[in-house]
Specification:
24 helices; four-stranded mixed beta sheet; about 10% strand; two-stranded antiparallel ribbon; elongated; 3 domains; alpha+beta
Length: about 600
């Protein structure tokens, strides 16, 4: 296969016409990072390659002349901060040189100060002293007259000191001879992300969605900000840059609040901000960790772009569609996100009532990005009546798709089947209960490993069932105003008191439930029956057994005896039987 790149070197003077993208919105390295680069150049150390590609938007439309070697036709893809720093050094070299050569600078400064002091003239502040370095001979002479330095020997000594600094600055990095190593990528623009990934393996990992910033230099969307969602999009973009600046890696060359002009944003910013909008409205299935995947994935759905080809979103056809339909896209995203979040309240945990409680508001152990995107794809073109019909079925598929690992591999390809214009798959029909039971039982049997606690998947399943049943029934347990806690029905402390080698499966779904924190803390290693007797409080035992399927006192007695006799196989067998019973109850209540 032919190579799609060229290794080249260009002198700094030849690179001034390269198109440096404005997509990074004035993001610049901190002054410390910029000085580090200049110091590297001074020492003659390697400083990394610059990645460029032919800017097809500047291609001569009058003929088919190959202008790929014309520097003015290149756009910078990677290395903006390096090249921008070198350009800035060429214009403001003293700003970089001075902190790196403080001793040499101070020696000259003190000599000039002494001349002023001896003449009874106030010394110059640093800013005014530095300004002398940029004066022409005529300007310098006039400045000495203005400062009343008339002695020619003094003038010459000042001039000599300034010239020494100028010469040191010129010699520090010789820009006339500086050669910059470059890679010229000659492949397709949709391959930019893969190029970035390969170049940066082993280094600081780059997010491919951030990489699309480089590919989408001229892909811009103009918003009107005449409705709430558009304002949220613009605010999300501004907040994103504020967070980057706050992290300390970059500075902004202008205020974050002034960074967007005329409500024009680039496609990468719009996709990211769209993802943030979804996360804010659909916390049940999303989080800040998937902002880009969700936002760009939805743009793929809206433009009928396969998720594997998301790098082509910047095509003129897609860009035109997004620009003309972005208001409708935002309305659909808002509507679907809120309806999905209501549907998936079954994942919600009670929390925030006490210190040390659960940190995540929703149990996300079964959630994946592509699965969530499939819901958007399925509901995208439906009216509210049809959306409601599909939403009744989606929770069942949410669990079933996890059980048989539907979205584990090639999820991007499978997602396309749910696109409105493809429509090979959808959530219009209820899931088959018998098939679901088989999947669930097979999964429990195959995942019967002996863990030291509940996995996030088991917690999600326990929480779904609890929210459908006993958690909303105050006659069983009082959850109001209490944090939820996952509890081993046969108390973990009691099990570990006998089982020193972790033979008993502490991840069994048959041994799990959710309790309000007050009860879980108070009862400790007791069963609820034992707690009830010691605290002389009355608990709805029949409701607990009926709704939460809590074991009877006799069942507890038998299992405690098995533990005392180290009959851990019998305990595991009991827990497996309870797991199978849990599945029956789960199907009855959830589906």
């Amino acid at each position: 296969m032919a190579e799609k790149y060229n290794y080249i070197q260009k002198s700094f003077s030849n690179l001034k016409e390269i198109s440096i993208p404005k997509f990074q919105r004035g993001l610049v390295w901190t002054q410390e990072k910029r000085r580090d680069l200049i110091s590297t150049l001074h020492e003659g150390y390697p400083f990394g390659v610059i990645l460029v590609a032919t800017n097809n938007t500047k291609k001569n439309t009058k003929d088919e002349t190959d202008n790929s070697n014309d520097v003015s036709n290149w756009q910078l893809l990677d290395g903006q901060q390096r090249l921008s720093t070198i350009i800035d050094y060429s214009k403001n070299s003293i700003k970089y040189w001075k902190p790196l050569n403080q001793v040499e600078y101070s020696v000259v400064r003190k000599k000039v100060d002494k001349i002023f002091i001896d003449k009874g003239i106030p010394t110059l502040v640093e800013k005014d002293f530095d300004a002398l370095l940029n004066l022409s001979s005529v300007e310098f002479t006039q400045k000495m007259i203005d400062l009343k330095i008339s002695d020619m020997e003094d003038v010459l000594n000042i001039q000599k000191g300034l010239q020494a600094i100028r010469q040191s600055v010129d010699d520090y990095v010789n820009l006339k001879t500086l050669e910059i190593p470059m890679i010229q990528f000659t492949g397709r623009s949709q391959d930019y992300a893969q190029v970035f990934e390969n170049l940066n393996k082993g280094g600081v990992p780059l997010n491919k969605y951030e990489i699309y910033n480089a590919a989408w230099i001229d892909a811009r969307i103009t918003l009107s900000s005449d409705n709430e969602n558009e304002k949220i999009i613009l605010d999300n973009i501004i907040d994103y840059y504020k967070e980057i600046e706050k992290a300390g890696t970059f500075e902004l060359s202008e205020s974050a609040d002034e960074i967007i002009e005329d409500n024009i944003v680039n496609l990468a910013e719009f996709g990211r901000a769209l993802g943030q909008l979804v996360v804010s409205k659909l916390p049940a299935l999303t989080s800040d960790n998937v902002v880009n995947e969700i936002g760009f994935g939805i743009l793929g759905i809206a433009t009928n772009t396969n998720n594997k080809d998301i790098g082509t979103l910047n095509s003129s056809e897609n860009l035109e569609k997004i620009q003309s339909e972005y208001k409708d896209i935002l309305l659909r995203v808002d509507n679907i996100s809120q309806k999905l979040n209501d549907t998936f309240s079954i994942l919600k945990l009670n929390l925030g009532h006490s210190k040390g409680g659960a940190k995540k508001q929703y149990t996300d152990g079964l959630s994946t990005v592509f699965k969530t995107l499939s819901y958007f794809a399925d509901l995208w073109d439906l009216d509210d009546r049809e959306i409601t019909k599909h939403l009744i079925n989606i929770p069942g598929y949410y669990v079933a798709d996890y059980l048989d690992n539907t979205w584990g591999a090639h999820g991007d390809s499978r997602l396309t089947d749910y696109y409105p214009e493809v429509s090979k798959k959808n959530y219009s029909n209820p899931i088959d209960k018998d098939a679901f039971k088989i999947k669930f039982k097979d999964w429990v049997s195959e995942n019967n490993d002996r863990k030291n606690g509940f996995s996030k998947q088991i917690k999600a399943l326990l929480n779904i069932y609890g929210n459908y049943t006993y958690k909303k029934d105050k006659d069983v347990l009082e959850f109001t105003g209490q944090d939820d806690e996952f509890e081993h029905i046969i108390p973990k402390k009691r099990i570990l008191g006998f089982d020193k080698n972790n033979y008993v499966n502490l991840n069994s779904i048959g041994n799990g439930m959710i309790l309000p924190k007050y009860l879980n803390l108070d009862k400790q290693a007791k069963t609820i029956y034992e707690y009830e007797k010691t605290r002389k409080t009355k608990i709805n035992e029949s409701g607990l057994q009926d709704k939460a399927h809590y074991p009877t006192e006799l069942e507890f007695k038998e299992q405690f005896k098995n533990l005392e006799e180290n009959n851990f196989d019998a305990v595991n067998k009991y827990l497996m039987n309870r797991s199978m019973e849990f599945i029956e109850h789960f199907v009855e209540k959830v589906l």
